[in-house]
Amino acid sequence: MKTKEDKKELTLMFIPGADKRVIRFKIPRISLYAVPSAAALVILGFSLTIYVQNTSHRSTTEQLTETFTGQEKQLTEQLMLKDSELEKLQIELIDLSKQAEQFKSKLEEIRKLENKISPGTAVSSGKSTAPPPSSLPDVGGTEMPVGTREMNELAAQTKSNLSGMIGDIDGLLVQLTESERKLEEARRLKRITPTIWPSDSRTVTSGFGVRQDPFNGRPNVHTGLDIDGELNDPVYAAADGTVTAAGYDSQHGNHIRIDHTRGIETEYLHLNKMEVQTGSTVRKGQIIGRVGTTGRSTGTHLHYEVHKNGTKINPSPYLISDRKDDN
């Protein structure tokens, strides 16, 4: 049953202009409630639609994200595995490179030692020359790409081979080093051993041992070799050493004595000139004086002596080479 309030109407008036007719609309009072309610329902329905769509979109997004995350994790793990294998291979190759450098260094050491031991020769650098095409063997087979496993095996095998070779080279280096040491010692002994003739002359006018004294005619012991020579012919140090005496007396005239270590000394008598002083260091073959006839001498010659542990011995066994041949 409608009340008086429900029957009341509202009049809406539209005035287009001053000279236009006014338009009136009458609408029930209840429309004031119906229209906002309808608008509210429309807004509510629109909001629900948006919410449902957002919920569906979020669910789909989460599913896609989860699927993508799983695939990404799987790909990441695969990449990490590949990176790990690659890193391992790289480390192997780095070690291989280091060993190759060590191998090269060892070969250089061997080459230097070999040159010291045998001048004029050299150790092969290890570089192989490819054979001419005509000498290549007949080969064949199917083509198959090399995988990581094969590369790892190759690197490991090469590393093992290089390690073995480096070990062999180390042993060879020890032997060569010992040989070099022995060679250097032999060269040193050769330098300090009086093995060369002390003058250019090879004519011995009086040997070592018992002889008739040229001045009094009585038997006496001649403690060296008299080597013929002209006045001021050069006199050479028979070996490396240190001059321990360089002076004059009535028996020896101008004379020089040289200590060659190991108990070996040489002495040079009747010199006309002395070209070294006491304390001088001399080299084998160095000119130390000049042939003369000073002191107890009958003419120009060189009296040459060799002393071993203070005893004068026959110099003849020591005269085994010429000055030029000994260097």
From TrEMBL:
Domain M23ase beta-sheet core: 221-315
UniProt-annotated stretches for the region Disordered: 118-144
Keywords from the UniProt entry: Coiled coil, Membrane, Transmembrane, Transmembrane helix
One MF term in the entry's GO annotations: metalloendopeptidase activity
Signal peptide bounds: none
TM ranges: 30-52
Protein name stated in the entry: M23 family metallopeptidase
Domain of life: Bacteria
Gene3D superfamilies: Glucose Permease (Domain IIA)
SUPFAM superfamilies in the record: Duplicated hybrid motif
PANTHER family: MUREIN HYDROLASE ACTIVATOR ENVC, PEPTIDASE-RELATED
